[in-house]
Design brief:
Number of strands: 3
Shape: globular
Number of helices: 2
Radius of gyration: 12 Å
Strand content: 25-35%
Amino acid sequence: MTVKRWFPPEGDVHVRIWLAGVVFDYSAAAAAVRNLIHDWRRMHWCTIELIRDTIEDCRPLPRLPCEQLFLGP
């Protein structure tokens, strides 16, 4: 399944970031995640997963740090 088929146009997305073997789970606005991925494509500084259905949906996730920076132009 491609990202375009299920990635929501708006709302929140569960994003998992792997950095130096450590996993971070965050909730972020779909627009911020799109911009994060766009930035990531220029230089792969971590591994990013978009999580669609998980048992973790039952617990609130922290917001992506500096999410506002990825919402700008």
